[in-house]
Structures are given as structure tokens and as C-alpha cells.
């Protein structure tokens, strides 16, 4: 038997129904990933069962897709060192961002088998003090920890709430096309997370420009799925209607 955390009954059913998880195949699939990694000298990967299960579940137990995600998970660290290296939670700015709560995983899910909800609040940080690269490094540190520890996140996916209260044009100007491309590459190709949707609240004018830039970097599959995702903007003007 694989050395992994047992899922709750609700998540085990979701894993079987939506991720095509078959407990009797896990040992074989995990062994296949380890064998493949042993033949990839360019990938210096962890090989414990719980870590590899992230990629199997994030790929709906497609071995080939899991291999692609594992490869990109490590490749992005070379391709975007400004986003993925020097990630020290005790470094001064990282500690400050944690205390500011610019990204917070909410403790409760809507249902026992529901996706993890992440509240993102860019308006909490000063864009003249923190670069978008520093903020993104903090977010990926949090994501890496949660992917290893949060079964709802890996099995049921992630639902984002982007609260733009206090966000200014200075925040939006931090989003260069180069940064957006690398951030999108990480979220689409280099992470086992499955994004279930996003809600945008308190959207100021100018937000559409940043949103459309991100949308332009989505791959064909994710772009075609946009209508199926929960993508809604709730602005102060709408609230007043």
C-alpha cells in the first residue's frame, strides 16, 4: 500500500468519480513514476508517495500527463529563477507579506468534498515596497505547502476570490507580459493544482486590461474552458444597482 494520507469518504468518492482514482493501481503507478524519474537525470525530484500523488491526482491519473507536469514543475524553477528561487519564509519581506495576508487559504470549504477557497488581496501590499516577483514567490511557497498537506486542494481543486479593494494602477503596472507569461506557465503546466474558477470582487476601472492579458496567455484548453469556469466580476458600481 502507498504511504499516503487516507482521504475522507467524501474526497475518496470524488477522487474515484472525477480523477478516476483506483486504489489497486496506485502502487504500480507510483512505481512507474519513480522508474521514469530515475531515467531523467535533469530532474532532481522528490520521490515519496505523497509528493508523487499530487501529480497523479492533478493529472487525473494519466501517467503521461503526470510526467509532463513533474518535468515542468522543476523546469520552471530554472526558467523563472526570479519567481521560484530564494523562497525563505523567514526572510523579512516574506514575513511581512504573510502578516499582511495578501493571499489567505480559507479554513472551511463549502462542502466536505469542495474545493479549497483562496482569498487574494493585492490591495494589502504597497507596490512601491514589494515587487510582483516577491509577492508571487510568497504565493508559490504557500501553494507548495498546501499541495503537500491539503487533500481538498489536490482532489477537489482551488476556487479563487480576488478582492481588489485598495488595488491601484501601480499594482496593475507591475504585471508585465513577461511576468504574466511565466506565472501562467507555472499555474497551467508546472503545478498539479486544478483551478475550478475565480470570483473578482471590488474591481476598479483598468482591471479588464490585466485580466485580458492573463487570458491571452491561457492555452487553448483552458481558454475553451473559460465559459465553464466561474469567472464573475462584482464591482462597487454593480453593488449599487
TrEMBL record:
Quote the SMART domains the UniProt record gives. Answer: CRAL_TRIO_N
Give the matching CDD domains. SEC14 (cd00170)
Span of domain CRAL-TRIO: 91-225
One Pfam assignment: CRAL_TRIO
Q: List the Gene3D superfamilies hit by this protein, alphabetically.
A: CRAL-TRIO lipid binding domain (3.40.525.10), N-terminal domain of phosphatidylinositol transfer protein sec14p (1.10.8.20)
Q: Name one GO molecular function term.
A: phosphatidylinositol bisphosphate binding
One Gene Ontology cellular component term attached to this UniProt record is:
membrane
What PANTHER family does its record include?
A: ALPHA-TOCOPHEROL TRANSFER PROTEIN-RELATED (PTHR10174), CRAL-TRIO DOMAIN-CONTAINING PROTEIN-RELATED (PTHR10174:SF216)
Could you tell me what this protein is called?
Answer: SEC14
What is the organism of origin for this protein? Anopheles darlingi
